[in-house]
Amino acid sequence: MKKARKLLATALSLMLFGASAVTPASALAESETAENVIFKDGYESIFVVVGTYNNKYTQLRCYSPSASGKLSAKKVVMTDTSAEYSYGDILVCSDEPELTEVYPYKNDPVYAHAYHYELSETTHLDTLGNCTEFQNTKELTVTRNDYAGSGYWSFWLSDDEGAEYRYNLNYVGSQYGVDLTKATIGDVYTFAMVKDTPILPLSEAEPAVTTTMKQVSLLSGDANGDFLLTVADPVAVLQHIGNRDKYCLSEQGLINADVDGVAGVTANDARVLQEWDANKGR
After folding, report:
1. DSSP letter, residue 195
2. Terminal-to-terminal C-alpha distance of the chain
3. What is the structure's pLDDT at 43?
4. pTM (two decimals)
5. Is 239:253 a contact under the CB 8 Å cutoff?
6. Which SS3 state, helix, strand or coil, does residue 77 take?
7. DSSP string, 115-175
């Protein structure tokens, strides 16, 4: 069993990682390249589990090579509920997948152009593994997001070296394991990558940590920290003395309020502060 799993992992790496993968003779003929094996006969498409559709059906992204050699993606719904999958599972079928284009909201003026493909229940998919176990990954930053209507979003992403990528999706009816529609500019996601294409966000964005510096009054006598010397300061001292649980002065406020030359804040400090306030302007 361990040997079989090792061979499976090796084959999957060859199919998904590209030319950098090591190619043992037992798994790949010398005349074949890793690019050929990714979508060779029997594996013309790969399916990645991205969430659910209408909270009921498994939702997939189907990746196939386009005429340009890049991977194109389709939104696919699996109506067969007999199998259970996890977010990021990679599925393949040995035969051409049978897909039917569906416009579920064609009479809705808001989402009339939203569509997906339904996978025939007669199409059998095999699970090869999960993106978290086998894929190359990249930290990508959201640099732009556009909404085109009918639930269609486009996300522009960049890596640390400035290379740009694009990830499109349609959120109508979708519940995603990692929801990019909540992303804002500057958010960073970890993506699984195949053929230099981001195929799945693996982790939620980490919110930017902002540090705010709170200004503190160092003014002698400013017990309440409002940067002023008023009658409110001796009042704050007396309230602190009378009920520290409710009117406790801040650490800096205690330093500011200790003005009578004797260590510790007492009623005498309040008396001195009252005198300061009374003598203002004289």
Report:
1. T
2. 94
3. 63
4. 0.61
5. no
6. strand
7. -EEEEPTT---EEEEEHHHH-EEEEEEEEEEEEEETTEEEEEEE-TT--EEEEEEE-TTEE
